[in-house]
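Researcher: Here's the sequence for the chain we discussed earlier.
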Amino acid sequence: MNTSAGISLCDAPIGKPVILTRISGGSKFTRRLVELGLTPGVRLKVMQDSGGPLIIAVRDSRIALGRGMAEKISVSIIED
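Model: Thanks. This is the structure I predict for it:
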């Protein structure tokens, strides 16, 4: 299993598993994402990207993230 270079969550392909590598934001922003289960190393998938908020699947949940928030999250694509 290889991972590609980090990209913004907004640029992640729909339905492809990715690994969260970095959160670029303040402590309140980071804490909020951690409360939602978004921690470095977690696997997730973008389920829907229709130009507005992204719907992501992480652990056993679906979460809607605004594009501004998603831009601050770096991920690596998992290559099987």
